[in-house]
């Protein structure tokens, strides 16, 4: 082995260790930020190692790619708002998967006759997963961005059509594995994989898109691992496998938090029958004035804030922290209840509240905080809806029956901050808003919280 190859393998080892450590650190909010930096360091080491240890045919394309990728990445990081992070992530998956598919096509064009049976299998696998993840992720991004309708697109015989595409694609994969010279079959497999990605995601509603995205993340990781096998690149195998399995574990955790199975998410068409499934509560929502709400908060002993997607869209994280601090100065015990699927991506609320410097010690997970609601004077629901919907617990016929919820309705008083009568992402009515303990404070969450803070100061 030459010196440069030793250097490359050493950087791959360092990169792999950094990736593993970063994953471990990202599992806790205290260390997540540092974990992210470690992962970036690992990626940098892997890129430097590859450039030093590989025979470079032309630097022009590499430098052009680095420059273009860095400009697009920096531009996205600066301009994309937090609320659009899920679709931004979906776009990144699409780019990563497309890269894996293109590398696979390049290998097919140049080296297919030199590859042994196992590597040819890995190549086909890489191209199928890469291609279907590319179009699947683009559809997910378009649904989340509202470019195409978020509702599940379903039609009669859909499962049969999907099964036919899947079987044809798999058939082409096996044939071109055995007969690598059959280029037409290989490209048919590629085309079918692009179509299958679209068909896989259109029947899924936007509310389930985060689960789908982490599954697609998992596919993109496995495609990268397969690329690693084809190219004989260890760091790609390790990073791809880590990515593949962490994405899968995240999907399972999200499904658990919604009490749904992966098959229900993928094939259930959740959200298609919302209109029929919504119950008519028949009651009225009781409005509360700003001053009355401020009075309740100022004279409470214990207050729990329950943030949801509306807090993210309103960017109200700083405003809630300021109100929380004011209440604490008055001797009120303030806690924040975090539902695992509040918002639109895993850890959404943790990230927002951390950005506003809310101490981690004030954040409580669902299992920890639920027993505390009954001894809480005021639960303040800020732009959350589905995650506090008691129907999930009380109505076995509800579409979200069995989904664990934050049991705010057990608090002595509930104040809900939202703009109007809008429903949650599931599209279901929420009986919490009609309960006698609940009052509604209408308005944008950020302005309501700022006005509440001012009013509390005057109590
Ligand atoms: P939600 O059910 O989507 O409800 C958000 C509420 O916020 C809406 O009812 C809306 O009512 C209100 N709102 C919107 N903008 C607002 C603003 N500027 N100010 C004040 N209120 C505003 O949110 P959630 O309770 O956080 O539930 C998350 C949903 O996403 C769940 O259905 C969950 O299953 C799904 N999901 C999440 C993930 C994840 O990883 N986080 C994954 C899969 C699925 P108005 O329009 O009346 O204001």
Please tell me about this protein's structure.
The structure is a single chain. With 459 residues, the protein is of the alpha/beta class. It has three domains: 1-79; 94-275, no CATH class; 290-457, Rossmann fold (3-Layer(aba) Sandwich), CATH 3.40.50.1220. Helix content is 61%, strand content 7%. The protein has a six-stranded parallel β-sheet with strand order 3-2-1-4-5-6. It starts with a helix and ends with a helix. Bound molecules: NADP nicotinamide-adenine-dinucleotide phosphate. The site of NADP nicotinamide-adenine-dinucleotide phosphate (NAP) has 35 residues, from α8, α13 and β5.
The rounded Rg comes to 25 Å
Structural class: alpha/beta
Low-confidence stretches: none
Q: How far do the termini sit from each other? A: 76 Å
Q: Characterize the main sheet.
A: 6 strands, parallel
Count every helix, treating DSSP H or I runs of 4 or more residues as helices.
Answer: 18
Mean pLDDT: 90
Considering DSSP H and I runs of 4 or more, what fraction of the residues is helical?
55-70%
Total of domains: 3
Small molecules in complex? NADP nicotinamide-adenine-dinucleotide phosphate
Strand order of the largest sheet: 3-2-1-4-5-6
Following the backbone from N to C, one meets helices and strands in this order, namely: HHHHHHHHHHHHEHHEHEHEHEEH
Q: What general form does the structure show?
A: globular
Proportion of residues in β-strands = 5-15%
Number of strands: 6
